[in-house]
Amino acid sequence: MSTNDLAARVLAGERRALARAMTLVENGTESGRETLRALYPHTGRAHTVGITGAGGVGKSTLTNALAKEYRRRGKLVGIVAVDPTSPFTRGAILGDRIRMQDLSPDPGVFMRSMATRGALGGLSATAADAVAVMDAFGKDVILLETVGAGQDEVEVASAAQTTLVLNTPGAGDDVQTLKAGIMEIADILVVNKGDLPGADAVMAQLKALLSISDHTDWLIPIVRVVSSREEGITELADTIDRHHAYLEASGALATNARARARHQVLAAAQAELLRRALHAVGEQGLSDLVNSVAERRVDPYSAASRLIDVVAR
Predict the structure, then answer these.
(1) Among 250, 276, 298, where does a domain finish?
(2) Are residues 147 and 81 in contact, defined by beta-carbon separation less than 8 angstroms?
(3) The pTM is what?
(4) 95 and 17 in one domain?
């Protein structure tokens, strides 16, 4: 099947074509890049919602509940769920499929589990590309769930229009709540497992945090939910829609789109430069550079410059 045929089938709403296109894009093949080029002019319509937070806060359960809520509202939903890759075996469990099995029979939901493949920041290197393919396919809402590795999962803010940062009772002390980084990317703060003891304290800590933070026209709301029972999910979906309406009315939607595009261009350029450099220098050339650094004959920055110079010749 040609790239143009595959892209046409994706635009026609064929799920098998979507699955094939997602695989090509995720693997970073030339066919995948050609497919993305054909589909990209048809993107920009979906509302992308990033869902992040530390491990164990219930991101997958919340994603599952939100997907059901948007389906009740007649929305077509895409889910990109990222799982960590083992640094030893390079494998990934992709456990989100297990937690969201009840969505499988719904033809209005398409879920894709992706491994990080060593990428940092909570997303895989091609997660934004996967979102673009789902967007072109015609999904109204795309839920982008990060790995959940810790406090530095800020990459999702460059791929989503609305970012949810989840917190739960018992996840840490008061200082934990105040740590910078992941908290600063939140458009909406969510207290999940809100029926547990300590939920009131978490709500109070977050309110205190917001009272001393810089304010914009959008006052960050705090929504309390119990995802496992789908309590508070309707209010959360309403808040997400309200944030999207704010972005459109304020002009921030277009401004943020340019910022995301800049980030994606630079990230793609870095990846392409590295790919070309590694191809040009070869495995033996890279091994020689690595050995020279390990033996302290060359510093890492000089070795990196030599690697880049191979491409510039």
Answers:
(1) 250
(2) no
(3) 0.86
(4) no
